[in-house]
């Protein structure tokens, strides 16, 4: 039972709190009430490709034909039909490979939909003015640059003056190196992360571990070892292409948990990899619901990191 003094203090405190709520709102009394799980979730899809069937205005790069365009088009409007029913209103566009260094279609889509898209461009790292080109693209909303990180390409990165200039510019301009990595290239990626620890690095699609159907422990260990570099992030994405390759993709859950344990949820981000995620028996719903409903080892704040705040930090600030 409260004594008289304690009761008076309690009543006075309660009265003061009620008055504060009435006059200044919840924020003034208890900012903790505004915890992340009380704010509406605004998912960000951190990896989508768009292209158009209009190859006159946006020609394909040398070596690519219209047969490579499957589906024939995937425009922003076709994307919105897939993602908007699930509350996804911001998207990171990844330059499509068959346009190579011509980023115009991606940039035009970003211009037509201000505030919706961020961009990851492709540039020619062999150019002597690559840092200047990166800076110009950043002015158009580009926040990262895609690099094909297979074993052949990455074997020369550590000794490449041009690649070094690109990674250095990334650190100086706060632009991410976004790596379409193969598992066998992870050792070379480690070398670059050690050499350029201030450069933001984003590993796409779990470094494609599991493409063969199996989750190789040595490859997983090599990916998890990148967690020691504070600026390395990993996309939990392309579920359709990994492991059993069947929704609801529950075989990916243990790998996501190990990534959470090593990197922390604040360095993981979800992405669909549309339009490939919405082909055949796969769907946008199955991809986003794996994170929303199946990761019961995560708190609501951790799921928010995967679905929103990590991508917002890397690609929308």
Structural class: alpha/beta
Order of helices and strands: HHEHEHEHEHHEHEHEHEHH
- The mean pLDDT is 91
Shape label:
globular
Task: Identify low-pLDDT runs.
Answer: 1-34
Helix content: 25-40%
Cα distance, first to last residue?
53 Å
**Total beta-strand segments:** 8
How many whole angstroms does the radius of gyration measure?
A: 23 Å
Largest sheet: 8 strands, parallel
Portion in beta strands: 5-15%
Number of helices: 12
How are the strands of the largest sheet arranged?
A: 1-2-3-4-5-6-7-8
List the helices and strands and how they pair.
Blueprint: H1 4-24, H2 26-29, E1 44-48, H3 76-83, E2 90-94, H4 104-112, E3 117-121, H5 130-138, E4 142-149, H6 151-154, H7 161-173, E5 176-181, H8 186-195, E6 201-203, H9 217-224, E7 232-236, H10 253-263, E8 268-270, H11 284-293, H12 300-315
Parallel strand pairs: 1-2, 2-3, 3-4, 4-5, 5-6, 6-7, 7-8
Helix pairs in contact: 5-7
